């Protein structure tokens, strides 16, 4: 599986680099645009991405202890720290971390989930478009479907997700069909992707988001 892990990291690094390029052209006003993450601006999402990209397992343990065993509190601190930094600093931090393979103690595929979903959290409100590689999106959807911590397991219970562009089927039950990117976004609670999906399970998924 080492080869698979290298391929996943290569995609992560490519997506980070692409996001840095998109961010490089933003105005100061655009950094303060509301992202798809409730309560977070574009600046906040970038601060989180840059900080997490260099968060090794060892550093995570230390942060986890200082945060009272709360991963959510770690993220809150990342965001708050980013609000005191200039956008140019945040962009430089993300650029410096593009090829990092540091990660919290989570499966490597979770790094695809993070960079793709947060990439869309930023791009969609700004009207930016990105054609993502589909190589690992199916695996990313499967990861979220089984992830109890993020709420994905509960959100997708009893639903069968069918990726129309990747030939992947995740789960059993009412069908929800569409591009893997749209499935991933909806699986992570982004309502913006619901109109891109079809099938008898869409209404139920909508009620859960």
Question: How would you characterize this protein structure?
Answer:
By secondary structure, this protein is mainly alpha-helical. It has two domains: 2-126, Up-down Bundle (Four Helix Bundle (Hemerythrin (Met), subunit A)), CATH 1.20.120; 137-208, Nonspecific Lipid-transfer Protein, Chain A (2-Layer Sandwich), CATH 3.30.1050. 55% of the residues lie in helices and 6% in strands. It contains eleven helices and three strands. Strands 2-1-3 form a three-stranded mixed β-sheet. A hairpin with a 4-residue loop joins strand 1 (159-163) and strand 2 (168-170). Helix 1 (2-23) packs parallel to helix 7, helix 3 (42-52) runs antiparallel to helix 7 (109-126) and helix 7 (109-126) crosses helix 8. The chain is globular, with a radius of gyration of 17 Å. The chain starts with a helix and ends with a helix. Residues 15-102 form the Mycothiol-dependent maleylpyruvate isomerase metal-binding domain. Pfam families: MDMPI_N (PF11716). This is Mycothiol-dependent maleylpyruvate isomerase metal-binding domain-containing protein.
């Amino acid at each position: 599986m080492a080869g698979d892990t290298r391929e996943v990291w290569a995609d992560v690094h490519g997506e980070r680099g692409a996001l840095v390029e998109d961010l490089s052209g933003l105005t100061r006003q655009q950094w303060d645009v509301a992202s798809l993450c409730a309560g977070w601006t574009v600046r906040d999402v970038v601060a989180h991405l840059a900080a997490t990209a260099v968060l090794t397992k060892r550093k995570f343990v230390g942060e986890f202890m200082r945060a009272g065993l709360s991963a959510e509190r770690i993220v809150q601190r990342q965001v708050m720290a980013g609000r005191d930094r200039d956008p140019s600093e945040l962009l430089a931090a993300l650029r410096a971390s593009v090829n990092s393979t540091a990660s919290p103690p989570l499966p490597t595929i979770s790094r695809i989930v993070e960079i793709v979903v947060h990439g869309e959290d930023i791009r969609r409100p700004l009207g930016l478009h990105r054609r993502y590689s589909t190589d690992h999106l199916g695996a990313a959807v499967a990861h979220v479907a089984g992830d109890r911590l993020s709420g994905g397991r509960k959100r997708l219970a009893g639903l069968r997700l069918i990726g129309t562009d990747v030939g992947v089927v995740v789960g059993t039950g009412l069908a929800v069909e569409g591009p893997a990117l749209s499935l991933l976004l909806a699986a992570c609670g982004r309502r913006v992707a619901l109109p891109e999906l079809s099938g008898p399970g869409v209404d139920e998924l909508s009620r859960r988001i």
